[in-house]
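Thought: the user asked what HD/PDEase domain-containing protein looks like in 3D. I have the sequence; next I should run the structure tool and report back without guessing.
Action: structure_tool
Action Input:
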Amino acid sequence: MKKENIFLIPDEIASVAKTLENKGFEAYLVGGCVRDLLIGKKPTDWDITTNAKPEEIIASFPKTFYENDYGTVGVVNEETGEESLKVVEITPYRLEAKYSNNRHPDSVTFSKNLEGDLKRRDFTVNAIALKIETGSKGHYKGHLVDPYKGHDDIIQKILKTVGDALERLEEDALRVLRGVRLACQLGFTINITTKEAIKKATPLLKNISKERIRDEFSRILMTNSPLDGLTLSQELGVLPFVLPIIEKGIGVEQNQAHSYDVWEHTLRTVQHAADKKWPLEIRLAALFHDSAKPETRRKSAETGEWTFYGHEVVGARVAAKSLAELRYPKKTIDKVVKLVRWHMFFSDTEQISLSAVRRLVARVGKEDIWDLMNLRICDRIGTGRPKENPYRLRKYKSMIEEVMRDPLSVGMLKIDGTKVIEVTKIPPSPKIGYILHALLEEVLEKPELNIAEYLEKRAPELAILGDKELEKLGVEAKEKKELEEEKNIKEIREKYWVE
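Observation:
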């Protein structure tokens, strides 16, 4: 192992391992963290395995918790600020009995043998243990226990199971999805034997809870290469057991605006969301945005072109049903459905008004409107068009910002008419409006004056003025407001390089 990769091991992890060793136990890093260290990545979580039993682990540390059937003890480290180090999981070596439900072992037996523990693991790249030997503070060296040649597989970028492939996948059928995820996450190739076993074991996904399938599928979408993950899922026959509706787009030709069929377009749309590091909701919306095209496709008698009228409406229903079946949270479903439903918004800025844009913002919500714009960008790139942000879309964005900005009016003041009546002792009359507009004129000149204490003090001073003088101040405020409005709109349009 490269020395610089060992240096990625934090003091907190080495300290936990050293504590166990000082108590007379063995302690090894194991699983994904060792794999990531060998690849040269900083692990996001750390797992230690030991020949100590759970009660012996608990007795070795001041603060722990133990809330599972598999012997895993969480060691709490309150002194670190790094989230991944606040809890370090330690699991005894263990042997597992038969998996009769394709989900969990029927029983777990703690062991004193590390090799036996590594034998039960899923893939060779995850069946490597690293013994940490402490040198000076902050520097660690170590050696590998690698009976299944996982390090060689990492070097060759090969993903394969430990031992008999079909047997390993049948133990926990979720491993078929995990294999797809690891392959696209790491950029590895699944070897032929494991691929064939995945094809055979995939039907066992029916025995896995929807929640576990959802979580693993979401991890595939959140990799940097969801296009590869979705392609591999379809190739291995996994996708029909997760989201069968999506692969119905294979071979479904589109109109001349598209370079690809629905399937390829969908893959590229999702991939662009990943390239942009956009969140799960946008990636799911990208996955479902054209899911109803196969169902709604018709050929125009006039042009001979394929049409997909209403596919966004039907697609929203498809997304709602599919995501609910996978037990996604309601908040996630609601947002994805909304994005799919409105992704075909009319964006010809030569033909739409600000009021039309305002209606779209009201339907989608201020909190989601920019994600809808991002989905449109993904959709464009997915068609094979080179420009993700053409003039028309930039103009539309400027119109959104224009309708969403806070209006310049007396409503922005930290005082209202009721309070002016109270502090000036003037009965309701047009003069109250004059005072408010006079106050607005001052605030537009000096925004820092928009505080209740100042305005409540200033209002009685203005009340002394005559109506004509106050009305004049109001007119000046209106003129200044119009100038500020024009300035703001100009700045918005310059921001998007539009006129």
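Thought: the tool returned a structure. Summarizing for the user.
Final Answer: Structure for HD/PDEase domain-containing protein predicted. The chain has four domains: 3-154, 157-241, 261-404, 410-495. The chain has a mean pLDDT of 88.
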